Each structure stands twice: as C-alpha cells, then as structure tokens.
UniProtKB/TrEMBL annotation:
<feature type="domain" description="Beta-lactamase-related">
    <location>
        <begin position="312"/>
        <end position="575"/>
    </location>
</feature>
<dbReference type="InterPro" id="IPR012338">
    <property type="entry name" value="Beta-lactam/transpept-like"/>
</dbReference>
<comment type="similarity">
    <text>Belongs to the peptidase S12 family.</text>
</comment>
<feature type="signal peptide">
    <location>
        <begin position="1"/>
        <end position="22"/>
    </location>
</feature>
<feature type="region of interest" description="Disordered">
    <location>
        <begin position="513"/>
        <end position="543"/>
    </location>
</feature>
<dbReference type="InterPro" id="IPR050491">
    <property type="entry name" value="AmpC-like"/>
</dbReference>
<dbReference type="Pfam" id="PF17660">
    <property type="entry name" value="BTRD1"/>
</dbReference>
<keyword id="KW-0732">Signal</keyword>
<dbReference type="InterPro" id="IPR049511">
    <property type="entry name" value="PGH-like_rpt"/>
</dbReference>
<dbReference type="Pfam" id="PF00144">
    <property type="entry name" value="Beta-lactamase"/>
</dbReference>
<dbReference type="InterPro" id="IPR001466">
    <property type="entry name" value="Beta-lactam-related"/>
</dbReference>
<protein>
    <recommendedName>
        <fullName>Beta-lactamase-related domain-containing protein</fullName>
    </recommendedName>
</protein>
Length: 637
C-alpha cells in the first residue's frame, strides 16, 4: 500500500509514545461508572491530544472507531476511568507502519484489543489498541476479501470476535477482523454483510434481542453506513442503542441517556461531512457483570453425604465454568425416593438461582413418557405391539410397505424412516405448512405432518434396520389420543405422571419471558408457527423448525432432574415397560438432558443449553465424571 506523507507518519509514530501507559497489570473492574469520556468527529491530532490527557488521568480506551477519508481520518472513542494492564495505541498509520507496530508489541506479550481502518484497500489507514493481557491465542487479519474467510486463519481455535471493520470501496471491500480465543465458551453472534448479501439490521436486531438476556455489543459501521452488529448474552444492566445519528443527534442522545444513568459503551462512525453518521450502544455498566457460583439442594442418601456433596459440586463446577453453562440440575433416586438433588447456577445476578424443583426443557428424554403411555395402553388391553399403525388410524400410505409398520416398529425406530435420507419432519413444520393447500397461511399440525409423511415413500423396508426417528413418537402420541379420545397431555397427567411436575414446553418465546430457567441458544431460524413470515425466532422457540405443542411425544416436555429420577424408578429409561437398566439422552436447541438406571439407582442430569465446548465435554461429564462419582460414593444402607 502507499505510505502516508512524512508529516502524517511522524505524527502517528510520535503519538504512540505519548499515549502508551505503564499501569500495573490488574483485572479490569466490573463497576458501574460515571467516569466515562467520549469524543467523536475529531481528527487524528485531536484524538492524540485527548488520548494523552485521558491516559494521564487514569482512563482506558474501551471503544475506538476510525472513519472518513484516509487523508484526514476522523475518530470516535470511549474512555473509562479504571485500573487495568498497560496498553499502547496507534492511529493514522498506513498498513506497513501498523503491521510493524502490531508485531513489535505482540513480541512483547501484548494483545490487540481494538482495531479499525478506513480508506480504499490500497491506501487505508489503521488505528488500534494493544494491551498487556493474558490471551494465549488471538488472531487478526485485515486483508480479507470475505469475512467468512476469517475462520480459515484461526487454526480451528474457537474465537470470539473482538474487533471488526469493513473498509475499502463498494467495488472492492476489505474486512479487518480481530478474534480472541474463546475461554469459558462465551456466546456471541456477528452478522456479516458481503458484496452479495447485506444484512437487514432491523430484522437481525429484533431476532437477536428476542433471545432472553441478549443485547448488542457493538454496531460496527462502514463508510456507506452498513451496520455489522454483534450480540452477546452478558449483562450490563439496562441498555439502549441508536443508529443513523448525525453528530448533533449523537450529542443529544448521549445527554438524554446519561440522564437515565446509561453511558456509551460503543460508538462507531462512518462517512464524512454531511454524510457522517454514528451508531451507539448505551448501558448502565461499562463492563459486563461477573458470574457467581450458587448451589441449592441436598444430598441425604449416601454413606458419606458431605464427601459426596463436595465431589459432586466440584465436578459440576468444573464443567459449567469451562463450558459456560449457566443452569443445571443433578438428581439420584432409589425406588422413587430422592437420595440427592442438587441445582447449580453459574450466572450473573440477574438470572434466577436454580432450585431443585425448577423445570428444564427435556428434548428427547420426553420420549420415555410416550413409551410409558404405550405400555399403559397395552397393559390395559387397548392396544397391542403388533397392530399396524396406519390401518389403526385409517390412513392409506402411498408406499405399500408402510401398511406393515407396527407399533413395535415405531418404538424400536425400525419403521422405515431415516432422517439422514428424507429429513426429519419434526423440524419441517414450516416446509410442511407451505406444502398444504393453505400455502402457509396457517401453521402445520401433527395431523398435517402425518398426512405429509404417509404421502411419501419410505426410506427402507420396515424391520430392515434401526434409524433414530423423531417422527415415530409423534405418530404414537397421535395413536394415544386416537385410541383414548383424550388429548395426549391430559392422558399423561391422568394415567402416567403420578403427580410429577411434567409440563409441555410451549414454543412461543412470549410464553417464557419470566421463566426461571432460560433455555439458551445463540441460534435463530425462521418461524414455523407463522410460515409466511420472514421473521427469525430463537432456536428453542421454533427457530429449529419444531413446534413443541405438536411434538410433545418426541421432544416437547419439561421437568426437573428429580422428577426424571423418580419416574425411571418405575418406568424404562430406554425401551418400553417397567424399570430396567438403560439410559436415554436428549439434545435440542437450548437443552441437553440425560437419564440412566444403573444397578439399583436412577439418576438424571439437566442442562439449559447444548452449546458447550464440545460433545466430548458432555460425554465425559455423564459417562466418566458422574459415572465415577456414583461408583466411588456408595448409597447408604
């Protein structure tokens, strides 16, 4: 790239010395602070002057944006008065100067924490901040022609995006992205625009903030005012945001929000002159709340309850802190009597502290209630395992082989449905609704799903092999209703649950705004309840394609770990019939669950998310750490 003029280059280098700090390395405070200083629409010289003065007064830079013409870049910044590690900053640097500075301080153990750029690819100027903080792996690339290519630069290390800038021209975009290794499994999303796709900010914002506790972290802005928003699920108290502000409007907005006790935590600029615009995020706190560890419940049925409690709590704390899991339960029972029930919270103080009787979305552990229902019908001579299911329901399948599907086939996942071949109807409600004569003007029902499936060919001949199916239990729940004349959920309540608190987990996010347990997922998807809408909804609330009211028999129920442990004391965890050794696990957007009958004891584990570091982490927890715990700490008597 072309170099800056000698005068501008000297200004850039000299300003580096003037704003470097030598404060001791300490953790950044998490206090709410009114000691926030902001400036915007200032040139490089003014930025350097203000930086020097603020540093001398003990301020630290938490937001930096460079924008406008590379020959006379403007700056917007937020500084907070707080202790922290030493840092270095740079501005108005051409690519060569910036890269030299970056590598120099990287070699001294510093980490890039802010980066910005403005101008065409061949003559852009850069600004940044590097801090002496403990981040083992971090990655930064400012020559990307596609933002999604950043993942190719991180060597399979999971990262959290800390900085972003889309610069260049509309004909030749460039992307500068900074990522830090994701320690603690932080959850965040960022919505990139590319030359072939521009994010609809309003729609993205609505979808992301429908997820409970999610908020905008940064609203990165390009020169042509395209917003690249990033969202996180950390807590900074009350917050607000504004976009497309002029300089005057930004000043007025800062004054208005300050009167409410909200301070700017991110300002991004784009454009110059009359085209200068800003985005801004406000919050009560200038940095996120820390998480707190809380445990509830008792262990009463082991030979050494205190030692068992200490070991179990240690196991769960290690897992939850490493994987960022906020809410969990664990319970052990013997013949339906609870020996241990512990609830765990690794969360900010604005989340509920989990109690042993709180209910979690169960995912596929819901299927064991369906199996118990079929067992009840067979025991009461209202059904037999060999009954052809479609004949029983009065359907004539398009594939003649489906006439041979029995109740037992559906229970055993051998009915001829292979989701790896034909898809999983339980997550296809939107597609099915749009295929109906009503063309998506109404949501698909369970009956619609059944009629959709019976019109399709089977994936294999019934009985040939086993392929896990969510559709089978859905169909069987319809059988329960059809035979008894009672809605499936009412049948469970009357005949199966024996007073246990097991409920339907309703799909709509609006039904869960006050829930104590937050089923957490960063993912969103199209709304299956409103098939013609382009609106995105959170994964646990239909964004995965499922409608839980119609999928109660397969993954739509909610209960506590204690209720699950009690239930499998008299019903099969896996299979159909009474208690038997075996296990069942559930995995769904926003939920991960496990139940097992082992020897004489029954136990259950519930988590409020499946977005932990890896599936291996969960497998190690259930099969090794908790398995060893149950082996090493015998029950009393």
């Amino acid at each position: 790239m072309h170099s800056l003029s000698l005068r501008r280059l000297l200004t850039s280098v000299l300003s580096l010395c003037s704003v470097s700090s030598a404060l001791p390395s300490q953790r950044r405070s998490n206090t709410t602070s009114s000691h926030v200083e902001t400036y915007y629409s200032v040139d490089g010289a003014t930025h350097a002057e203000k930086s020097k003065a603020l540093k001398a007064d003990g301020y630290r830079i938490v937001s930096l944006s460079s924008y406008g013409s590379p020959d006379n870049a403007n700056y917007a910044a937020i500084w907070v008065q707080e202790e922290g590690p030493s840092f270095e900053i740079i501005h108005d640097a051409d690519e060569a100067t910036y890269n030299t500075w970056l590598q120099t301080w990287k070699s001294r153990g510093y980490v890039s924490t802010q980066v910005s750029a403005t101008g065409p690819a061949e003559s852009a100027v850069f600004a940044g901040v590097m801090e002496n903080i403990n981040v083992d792996n971090w990655f930064q690339s400012c020559e990307l022609e596609n933002p999604w290519a950043f993942s190719n630069t991180t060597g399979n290390v999971d990262v959290v995006v800390k900085g972003f800038r889309m610069f260049g021209t509309t004909e030749e975009r460039r992307y500068c992205i900074l990522g830090h290794e994701n320690i603690g499994n932080e959850q965040m999303t960022i919505q990139y625009s590319t030359p072939s796709f521009t994010v609809d900010f309003a729609s993205a914002f609505e979808a992301e903030t429908t997820k409970r506790f999610w908020r905008p972290s940064r609203l990165f802005l390009s020169e042509d005012h395209i917003i690249t928003p990033s969202f996180v699920d950390t807590s900074v108290g009350k917050w607000s945001h504004a976009v497309d502000l002029t300089k005057t409007e930004l000043k007025e907005k800062i004054e208005t929000e300050s009167a409410k006790g909200l301070y700017p935590i991110d300002i991004q600029g784009g454009g110059s002159g009359s085209n200068e615009r800003f985005t801004v995020v406000f919050a009560e706190r200038t940095s996120p709340k820390s998480r707190q560890w809380n445990v509830r419940g008792e262990i009463t049925g082991f030979e050494d309850n205190k030692a068992a409690e200490k070991e179990l709590d240690s196991i769960m704390r290690r897992f939850m802190e490493k994987n960022g899991v906020r809410q969990a339960q664990f319970a052990v029972a013997l013949e339906g009597k609870i020996l241990a029930e512990r609830s765990y919270t690794w969360a900010e103080d604005d989340r509920a502290i989990v109690e042993p009787d709180d209910i979690f979305l169960l995912a596929s552990v819901s299927k064991m209630f369906l199996h118990a229902s079929i067992d009840w019908l067979v025991t009461n001579e209202m059904l037999n395992f060999s009954a052809p299911v479609y004949d029983l329901l009065g359907y004539k399948p398009a594939d003649a082989r489906a006439n041979d599907i029995t109740i037992q086939h559906l229970l055993d996942h051998t009915a001829g449905y292979d989701r790896s071949m034909s898809g999983d109807p339980s997550f296809m409600f939107r597609e099915i609704a749009q295929s109906l004569p009503t063309k998506g003007t109404k949501a698909a029902t369970l009956q619609d799903v059944i009629e959709y499936v019976v019109a399709k060919p089977l994936d294999f001949t019934p009985g040939d092999y086993s392929a896990y199916s969510n559709y089978g239990p859905m169909l069987l729940s319809y059988v329960v209703t059809n035979i008894t004349g009672v809605p499936y959920l009412d049948f469970l309540e009357k005949n199966i649950l024996d007073g246990l608190n097991v409920k339907l987990y309703e799909t709509a996010a609006s039904k869960h705004t006050e829930d104590r347990i937050v089923q957490e997922s960063k993912n969103t998807g199209q709304d299956p309840v409103h098939p013609q809408s382009a609106k995105l909804v959170p994964g646990p609330h239909g964004g995965d394609g499922g409608v839980k009211e119609e999928c109660a028999g397969t993954f739509g129920m909610a209960a506590s770990a204690s209720s699950l442990a009690k239930f499998i004391g008299s019903h099969a965890a896996w299979g159909t019939g009474g208690r038997a050794s075996g296990s069942r696990d559930g995995s769904l957007s926003g939920a991960r669950t496990y139940v097992e009958s082992r020897g004489t004891i029954d136990w259950a584990l519930t988590l409020n998310t499946r977005e932990y570091v890896s599936e291996t982490e969960f497998d190690d927890l259930r099969w090794w750490y908790l398995g060893d715990f149950l082996y090493n700490f015998p029950i009393a008597g």
